[in-house]
Design a protein that fits this description.
Radius of gyration: 21 Å
CATH topology of the largest domain: FAD/NAD(P)-binding domain
Number of strands: 19
Helix content: 25-40%
Strand order of the largest sheet: 5-6-4-14-15-16-13-17
Shape: globular
Number of domains: 2
Largest sheet: 8 strands, mixed
Strand content: 15-25%
C-alpha cells in the first residue's frame, strides 16, 4: 500500500475521496465458480481467503445479500476468548485465538486486536464451582485461565464494585490472552485479502434457491443477480443459515434470536479489560473511541429481526450500574441487535451436510466473532478436502443424531 501522511489523508478527504482506491473490486457474477460462499461476514470472507491462500482455490465467489459486514460481524461486541469448558471447544477457540494474535500481520491490516484480558465474574457458590471447573479444564487442555479472589479481581479491574451490592463478587476467572478487536476491520481486512487473491466479492446478491442435480448433489444457486453454477457450496449466513439450507431440503437444529448491545457516549480511557457476568446478564468493555460497549443476553423469543425488546438492554444497564457505579451518569448513544443461531448444545456446526457438495458453518450463538479466523480456516479446509479438519471433526451435524453433544451452555456466558 502507498503510505500517506496525515496531511495528505486530510486533503484527500476534503476532495471527496478522489484518488482513493476501493479496497476490493465489485465484479459481476461469473456463470461458474469452483466454490461459492454464501455470507459476506467475517467467517465467510475468511473462508474464501483461506481457500485461495492455503488451498489454491481462487475461482471463488462470496455472495452477500446486503453489504459486507452488514450482519453479525458489524453488530457484535467484539469479545475474543478461548476459555470454553470441553476439550473440543477449547481446541477450536484457542486455534482461533492463536490466529488472532498474528492476523493483523497476515492480512497487512490493522484489526486493533487488543489482548486486554477477559474477566468472568462469579456471584454465587454455584458460579464459583462452575468457574473453577472451567479453570481446571482449561489448564488441562493447555489453555490459559486463572482464578482470582474478589480483591484480585478488583485490583485487575479497579472500577469493579465487589461488595455491598445485590450480587457480591465472590471471585472471577481471568483469561489474560483474551480481549477485543475491531469488528469492521476484520471484515474489511479479509475482503481485501481475498480480493487480492482473485476472489469475487459480490454484494447485493441474495441466494433465492439451491440447485441440485439428478444425483442429489449441488449444481449451483439461484440469486437475485441470476443463476450461478458450482459444485462446492458453503453456507455461512449466521441467523439465516437454516433458511438457506432448507432450500436444499436440509433442516438444521437451530433457533434464531435477536442479541442486543449498546454503547455509551465516549469518555477517556477508564476501563482496562472485558468484564462478563452470567448471573446478572451483562458484559462490558471500552472501545478505542472511548465508548463503553455493553452487551445483554438473548431475547426470549425467536426472531429474524436485527432489533429486540427494550427491557433486555434496560436490565443489562441496571446490572452494569450496580457493578460499576461510576458509570451511572453516562448517556447511551445507540443500541442495536444481531441475529444469533443457537444450537441445542450451544456449540457450532462446521462440516458437510447430507447433500454432496453442500457445507455449513453455523450455530455459533453469541460466540461467532471470537471464533472468526479459526472457524474460517477450518471451514476452508473442510470444503477443500471434503472432510473435516481434526479440530472441527467433533462439530458435525450428525452429533445431534448420535448424541455426542458438546454442551457449552455454561461456558457460552451471558447470552445462553
Amino acid at each position: 500500500m502507498t503510505p500517506f501522511s496525515a496531511l495528505s489523508l486530510l486533503r484527500m478527504g476534503l476532495r471527496g475521496q478522489r484518488g482513493w482506491q476501493p479496497q476490493w473490486r465489485s465484479p459481476d457474477p461469473k456463470s461458474y465458480y469452483d466454490a461459492i460462499i454464501v455470507g459476506g461476514g467475517g467467517h465467510g470472507l475468511g473462508t474464501a481467503y483461506y481457500l485461495a491462500r492455503e488451498h489454491g482455490i481462487t475461482n471463488v465467489a462470496v455472495l452477500e445479500k446486503s453489504w459486507i459486514g452488514g450482519g453479525n460481524t458489524g453488530r457484535n461486541t467484539t469479545i475474543i476468548r478461548s476459555n470454553y469448558l470441553f476439550a473440543e471447544s477449547a481446541a477450536l477457540y484457542d486455534h482461533a485465538l492463536k490466529l488472532w494474535e498474528g492476523l493483523s500481520q497476515a492480512l497487512n491490516y490493522n484489526l486493533m486486536f487488543s489482548q486486554r484480558g477477559v474477566l468472568m465474574l462469579a456471584h454465587t457458590v454455584h458460579d464459583m464451582q462452575v468457574s473453577q471447573r472451567h479453570v481446571h479444564a482449561n489448564r488441562a487442555a493447555g489453555v490459559d485461565n486463572e482464578w482470582l479472589s474478589p480483591a484480585e479481581a478488583h485490583a485487575f479491574c479497579p472500577p469493579l464494585k465487589i461488595d455491598d451490592i445485590r450480587y457480591p463478587v465472590l471471585g472471577a476467572a481471568l483469561q489474560r490472552r483474551g480481549g477485543t478487536a475491531r469488528h469492521d476491520a476484520v471484515a474489511w481486512g479479509y475482503a481485501r485479502g481475498a480480493d487480492a487473491l482473485g476472489v469475487d466479492i459480490i454484494e447485493n446478491c441474495e441466494v433465492t434457491g439451491i440447485r441440485l442435480g439428478p444425483s442429489g448433489a449441488v449444481e449451483g444457486v439461484d440469486t437475485t443477480r441470476g443463476p450461478i453454477r458450482t459444485q462446492r457450496l458453503g453456507v455461512v449466513a449466521a441467523g439465516h443459515s437454516s433458511v438457506i439450507l432448507r432450500m436444499a431440503g436440509v433442516r438444521l437444529p437451530l433457533e434464531s434470536y435477536p442479541l442486543q448491545a449498546l454503547v455509551s457516549e465516549p469518555v477517556k480511557p477508564v476501563f482496562p479489560c472485558v468484564v462478563m457476568s452470567n448471573t446478572i446478564h451483562a458484559y462490558i468493555s471500552q472501545s478505542d473511541k472511548g465508548e463503553l460497549v455493553i452487551g445483554a443476553g438473548t431475547d426470549a423469543y425467536t426472531s429474524y429481526t436485527q432489533r429486540g425488546a427494550l427491557h433486555i438492554p434496560s436490565h443489562a444497564l441496571e446490572a452494569i450500574c450496580e457493578l460499576f457505579p461510576m458509570f451511572r451518569r453516562l448517556r447511551m448513544l445507540r443500541n442495536w441487535g444481531g441475529i444469533v443461531d443457537v444450537s441445542p448444545d450451544r456449540s457450532p456446526i462446521i462440516g458437510r451436510t447430507p447433500v454432496p457438495g453442500l457445507y455449513v458453518n453455523c450455530g455459533w450463538g453469541t460466540g461467532g466473532f471470537k471464533a472468526t479466523p479459526g472457524s474460517a480456516h477450518l471451514f476452508a479446509w473442510t470444503m477443500a478436502h471434503d472432510e473435516p479438519h481434526p479440530i472441527n471433526a467433533p462439530f458435525t451435524l450428525e452429533r445431534f443424531r448420535d448424541g455426542t453433544l458438546i454442551d457449552e451452555a455454561a461456558a457460552a456466558a451471558v447470552a445462553h
